[in-house]
Amino acid sequence: MALLDILLYPDPRLRKQAKIVEVVDQKITQLVDDMAETMYNAPGIGLAATQVNVHKRVIVMDVSEHKNQLMVFINPVIEEETGDTEAEEGCLSVPGVVAPVRRAESVVIGALDREGRPFKLEAYELLSVCVQHEIDHLDGKVFVDYLSRLKQNRIRKRLLKEERDSSEIDRHNKVVVY
Ligand code: NI
């Protein structure tokens, strides 16, 4: 297992469209394991392959209280969505920023698991918000895209300045990061 580097907004590589995984082989399971380790280490509750500069449709998540229920989504597709809701979101690629985003309240997801077996999942609440957030990453979207232009510019300037100052960014001062 290995810790992977997480791309930071506004890195243009976060805009790449991830490709379908054709075969769930040992390379993919290795990626899943490295992504899980990286997510738990950050710490975060979700990570998309795009965020570690691998442009394949792979997501890892763990929204459990004790961080012992790893979920793996390969080639995830939103098959149904119901209602709408607003929740505070954060992101490992946008450290220090939390903002409300409107999304579907619940979704039905079809995907493959770590062994390449298809499954379906009805997701509610945090799980629903998180999986929608991660699928956005695979499509080159970041949650700040939903905010006003003004807020987006402010966030971009702040993160670019932090990068320039090469100051240590504290990624551990947030409760929930995706
Ligand atoms: Ni994120």
From TrEMBL:
Alphabetized GO MF terms: metal ion binding; peptide deformylase activity
Transmembrane segments annotated in the record for this chain: none
InterPro entries: Peptide_deformylase, Peptide_deformylase_sf
GO biological-process terms attached to the record: translation
Keywords tagged on the record: Hydrolase, Iron, Metal-binding, Protein biosynthesis
Family annotation (Gene3D superfamilies): Peptide deformylase (3.90.45.10)
Cofactor: Fe(2+)
SUPFAM superfamilies: Peptide deformylase
Membership in a protein family: Belongs to the polypeptide deformylase family.
PANTHER family: PEPTIDE DEFORMYLASE
Database matches in NCBIfam families: pept_deformyl (TIGR00079), PRK00150.1-3 (NF001159)
HAMAP family cross-referenced by the UniProt entry: Pep_deformylase
Protein name: Peptide deformylase
Organism (species): marine metagenome
Species lineage: unclassified sequences, metagenomes, ecological metagenomes
